[in-house]
Design brief:
It comes from Hygrophoropsis aurantiaca. The chain has 16 helices and 11 strands. By secondary structure, the protein is of the alpha/beta class. An 11-stranded mixed beta sheet has the order 1-3-2-4-6-5-10-11-9-7-8, sandwiched between helices. Residues 10-14, 255-263 and 434-447 have low confidence and may be disordered. The structure holds glutamine.
Length: 506
Amino acid sequence: NYLRTCGISTECSTRRVLDTKNVTVNAMVSFANHTPKPAAHSRINNLTVAVKDNICAANLPTTCSSSMLRAFTPPFDATVVELLKNAGADIVGKTNCDEFGMGSLNVNSIHGPVINPFKTSEGRSAGGSSGGSAAAVAAGICDAALGTDTGGSVRLPASYCGVVGLKPSYGLISRWGVISYADSLDCVGVFGKNVDIVNDIFNTVSVFDSKDPTSATAEIRMKADASIRHSLPHFDENQAEPNLSALRIGIPQESPPHSTSPEYFPTELDSTILDSLRRVIKRLQNLGATIVPVSLPSTPYALSAYYVIASAEASSNLARYDGIQYGRHVPLPVGADKTKPAAVYAYSRSAGFGNEVRKRLLLGTYALSADAFDNYFLQAQRVRKLIRSDFNAIFRAPDVLSSLSALAAPTDGVDALLHPSAIQSAPLLPPPKRSQANADDNKPTSAGSGLDTYLQDILTVPASLAGLPALSVPAGSAADGWPVGVSVVGQWGCDDLVLRMGRVIE
Ligand code: GLN
C-alpha cells in the first residue's frame, strides 16, 4: 500500500515467485531471465545472487536509481558479476538503491523507497544506499546480494534488516563495471543471511583485476597474508565454544556523560543499542578474549571529512553525465539559446539528477574551487590521514600498504575492533508522497532530510576513510524489537579474521 500511495508500479513480468515476495518491499528493480552456467565444484554453484543497480550486468538496466540513467542497459558484465556467473551463481536481477549511492535510507530513488521486510506494516527504512540488496536477502528473494559501500551503505542496511554485510578492504574486489560515486572510498560489498554465504561470495570475487587501477595486486595480497599469518592469533571458529584466549578485541571508548572530549561513540547513539554490544562483548570475554579499551582521537572529525571528500569526488565522477556523451538528454525548450553549451548541459543535468545528488555536486564543486580547496578538501585529506594513523596505532597487524607502519605496529595492539553498526534501529520512512517516480519530485522530507540522515553514517565512515574491512553481524534487537548489528573492523587485508570473528558472534 505504501508503494501504491507513492505511485510506484508493483508489476513485473518475470520470476513470478520472487516478484510476489518483492511486491511489498520494492527491493528489486529488474529481474534477470537467464539460465545459470553450472560450475559443479564451486561453493556458490546455483546460489541466487541479486546485484545493486549501480553494478553493470549484461542486458539488464543499470539505472543507479537515477532518471539520468533510466535508459541505460550495458552490454557487458562488471568483473564481479562475471566472476559470480563463472562460479555458477544465478543472478536474479538488480536491486533498488539511493541515487548513485548517495543516501542512508534508500529514499532517493526513481524506483521509490525500499520497505524494510522485517515488518512491512510499520513502513520503516531498509537503510541505504544498498537498501534493496539487504532487503532482498532479508525477504528471502535471494541467498546473497552485492552492494556497494562508500561510507556505510552495506553495513547500515545490513544492521537495519538483520542480515550480514561485509565491506571488504579497499581494493580487494574489482570496481570495473561499477558506476563510481567516490572512487577512493567505493568498495563492492556482500550481503548474506549468514557469514558462511558472505565468505563464499567474498572468496569468489576477491581477485586482482588488471582492468581496475586500484585493484590490490597479487603481490600486495601475498604480503598481507604473510604478515597476517605472522601476527594474528589462532582460534577455531568452527567449534561451538571456541577458545579465544589469543584474541585481543578493542572497544572504542564510550563517552562519559557530559564529556566534551572527542570520543568514538556519539551522543546520538540509542542506549539500547549499546546493550546488544555489551552482550556480544560478554560472550567473547567468556570465550577467553581480552577486551581492551582503545581510543581513536580523530574519529569525531570523520563524518565531516567524509562528506567533503565523497562530494568532491562525486562532482568529478558525475561530470560525465552531460546529456550528450553520457546520460539522458533533455532538449532545451523552444526559443532557448542553443549556442550556449553550458545551458544544454545544465538543462539535462537539472532534469536528470535528483535533489540529493544535486546538493552533493554543488558542495563537492565548491570544496574543489580555488577559494575553498585548502580549507575544505585539503583539510579533509589531512583528517583522513590522521584517522588512518589512529587505526594503525591500535592494530597489532601492520598496515602492509604503508612502508613505515610495519615498524610502528604495537605488539600489544588489538586484532579487531567492535562497535555498533548504527546509532539506532531502522528509522521510519518519510510520509509517502505522490509520484516518487519523478526524480524532480525527489525532494528531501522530514525523516530523510537534514543532518539526521547524515548522522546515520557516523559509526561507519571511519573504516571507509581508512579503507579497512568491516563486517556487520546481526546482534539481537533494540528496545523496539527491531534488529541491530555490531561491526567487526580489522586492519587492511584482515578480511578473513573479520569474517571468522563474525562466525563466532552470529
Ligand atoms: N550515506 C553515505 C552517503 O550518502 C554513504 C553512502 C554509501 O556508502 N554509498 O554518502
